[in-house]
Amino acid sequence: MSQTPELVVKDLHVAVEGKEILKGLSLEVRKGEIHALMGPNGSGKSTFANTLMGHPRYEVTSGDILFKGESILGLETDARSRAGLFMAFQYPVAIPGVTVSNFLRTALNARLAAPKGNGDGAMPAKRGIAPKEFRALLREQMGLLKMDDAFAVRYLNDGFSGGEKKRAEILQMALLKPEIAIMDETDSGLDIDALRIVSEGVNALSGPDLGVLVITHYQRILDYIKPQFVHVMMEGRIILSGGPQLALELEARGYDWVRNGKETAVR
By residue range, what is the domain housing residue 91? Predict the structure, then answer.
């Protein structure tokens, strides 16, 4: 586990169309750590995830986001990804006509491109990873995630079940090898079997070189992905932080006991 946090969020304020959503959020995540960010609907969790990745709809009005010691507020989404940030989407988009394999090779080549000189989102001038090398890497990662080889030749998310879409996200994470991964409600729309399979994939990738931020409404995904830190978010701020037991208390007592001020602790 690294000593200096790779991801540092300082007093972040974010507005959407003039309405403030995040109201002074602070958080630190190191490689080797798993954090869970929980909260009711409308608390700003997905706004936070999208802001971390530089979605243009979300305006940072004050505060800062540091990644590996440098502010990333001025970086486009592709540059943040090349630097080592990754987000697994709550609702992955289908791309008919583009196979999983071709999409992943393109994404990997973009990830490997030097950040300087390619920060405009254009494809790198160099050829990138050789097809034979990529096929071997893809087969290795699919084996690690217990995925059938036929998955690679299907069109990305086209006709996929909810579980297959989320497994495709985890496969992308495996290939891109980020340093910090943000999982935006990955458990949304999954049945118990699919949730277990996706969680096993995340656990297989977890380790000293990867920090994970799991964003969720419910405790159930945390039965499979075990966080060391749990944070409760309400009204655009983290208002309570603790260990794994906090998630169990939220499951048993709901968010009202935090909302009503029965517990107070600010990270």
Answer: 7-259
Contact (Cβ atoms closer than 8 angstroms) between residue 190 and residue 210: no
| Both structure tokens of 52 | 């971390």
Tokens of 101: 């394999």
**Alpha carbon distance 99, 122 (integer Å):** 20
Number of residues written out for the chain: 267
* Token pair belonging to 9: 């969020």
pLDDT band at 127 (very low <50, low <70, confident <90, very high): low
User: What is the rounded distance in angstroms from the CA atom of residue 261 to the CA atom of residue 256?
Assistant: 8
* Residue 182 belongs to domain with CATH number: 3.40.50.300
Please state the pTM of the whole predicted model: 0.89
What domain count does the chain have? 1
State how far the alpha carbon of 266 is from the alpha carbons of 33, 145, 231, 232, 234, in Å. 20, 37, 9, 10, 12
Asked whether residue 185 is domain-assigned, the answer is: yes
